[in-house]
Each structure stands twice: as structure tokens, then as C-alpha cells.
Sequence to fold (368 residues):
Amino acid sequence: MIRPAPAIDAIEPMTPFIGPEQLMRETGHPSLVRLGANESAFGPSPRAVAAMAAELEHLAWYGDPESYDLREALARKHGCRVEEVLVGAGIDDLMGLAVRAFVAPGGAALTTRGSYPTFNYHVNGYGGRLVYAHYHPDGSLDLDELAALAKREGASLIYLANPDNPSGTFVSKDEMRGFFEAIPRDAVFLLDEAYADFVDESALLPMELEDRLIRTRTFSKAYGLAGARIGYAIATERVIGILEKIRLHYGVNRSAQIGALASLADEPFRRYVVDAVARAREDYYALARELGLGAIESATNFVCIDLGDAHRATAVMNELLVRGVWIRKPGLPPLDRYVRVSAGTPPMRDAFAAAFRAVVAAFPSVPA
Fold:
């Protein structure tokens, strides 16, 4: 009988993300109010759509394996050099490169328990050893524990999302700088900034590059290109060169490159999306207050609403799905008492609010 490598054989089978398509098959709903994946409900830039459509006749062509035009535009945007930018098939792809490059078999990789799980899948899949810090009870990141664990465990790679997923909390640039200086100097800090477009650039860590820092961004959120799967990393030329050794050179599709480049040229559209998301967050905060529920102040395109305990949160999420409204919830404490709802258009928010009011009233509490 054939067997996989031992590190793979040891991984328990699981489905990391249950998508809306599977949920529709299971529930029989022909469609869902789609508020569970932090996609942009406001779509991609019309310029991006037009640029991609105009080039569809050339879909038989591979994309530029160097993504040079896009990297050049990104370098201008961030005030860095082309050699300091790497384009990949979304941040998930770039995470895998960082893990392969900097976590030796059996080596320690540090994250927060309950944070974005794809990092964990890469570490497990490539034979690393996961080390976990914990969230504070209010859902914020415990930077002191992360720094202490990095030193104690000899972590070679440290992952942190800012703004955070799934909580939506944000660490200021001064706190982030303090954390970066507190971690071991031989550890690589993988800073996931997927939601950075929803934060004023001046509030983020300045774009000062060191070999021990990799920053990742995406076109999936504010730019509305989640289905195109395209993101990028910013790091020193030396670190980019290391990642270049192992990246899949034709892994980014041509249409995604075209759409991303056109999106960068449409800053008014990105600003429109950021403003629309801010209005959606305010509506969710107001809805939570109306129902006597707490919510975490979010710097992302989603809001976590506090249902009091994990059992009630799960019951509310499941009943919303029965009613055709798809949201998600964090799976581990302390965030498992929350449901997480993505920023929707006004009609989507109205549909969610009506269903949420009814379901919350139907589940005032759920015994353990």
C-alpha cells in the first residue's frame, strides 16, 4: 500500500473552508445572502472588468511569469523597488512560500490560536511545528505572549495579521514596531496585511524593509478580485530572491494580472469601496446595540457580533443559513462566542438584519 510522507500521513483529514456552493448543495438554497467570506459585495472596478474582458480573446496565452508591469506599478504605489515586490496567487500562495523557505522540518512557526488558518495548513503540510499564542479575552492580539513564545520556542517564522482575521482588531504602528523589535532577530516576521486597504496608510507600519520582515497584501478585499486569486509580498531584494527560488512561475493567471493592474489605476473606486464598507460596519454596530449585543470595533470589511457564548453563536449562525443568510463564526475561544458578518450592500444588510433580529429573538440563550 502506498503511503504519503510521514508529515502528511500524520495530518487528520479535514475541510478547511466550507464554501457557499457546498452549503447551497446541502441546504437546497438556489442562492444565499453571501456574507460569510469577507469578499467585496461592491465588486471589482469597472476598469478592471473592462480590461480583463478586452483581453479574453488572448486567454490561450500564459501571463507574464515575472508579473513585471504589475510589480512596477506596485513598487510605485509603495515607494519601493521592483525587485522588492513578488506577485503570487493570493496571500495563501505567498504564505506557503514563506513557510517552505523559512521553516525547516520540525522547526517552530508561531501564530495566534484561532487566527487565519491557512498558515497552519502550510506549516503542517511542510513538516513544521506550530506554536500558539492566545487572544486576549476582548479579541485583541497578545503581543507580549507572542514575543515571549518566539524567544522560548526559537520560532523561525512568526505570523500575524493586522488588521486581524477573524477579530477585526488593529494594532497601531507604534505597538507593531515595539513587537517587531521584541522578537528574535533571527526570526522572520510574516505580516499579513490583507485588510490594510481599510486603514489609513499613515496608521500602518512604515514601509521600511528588513530581511526579517515580509509584508503581504491582496486584491481580494477592497479591490474585489477574490475570484482572480492575486496578491503580493513586499520584502528586501534578498528575501524576494529566496522566495523566487521556489515560487510557481506560471501560478498567477493572465486575467488576474490585467485586472489587478487596472484596479491600481482606479483609486476613486477603491476609495468608494472603503467608504461603503465603513457605512456597513456602522449599520452592524447599530444593529448589535439595538439587540443589546456587543461588537468588536473592526478595521476590516467585517464585524464580529457577540452572542454571549459559543453555543448560542453556533445556533444563530446555523439558523441564519436555514433562512438563506450565510455568515461564519470563529471556531476557538475567546472569539467563538461571536458571529462574523461581512460588509454587504444595503439590500444585503437589510436581509441580514431582518433575519438576525428574528433568529436572535428565537435563541435568547442556548444551554451547553
Remarks:
- The chain has a mean pLDDT of 96.
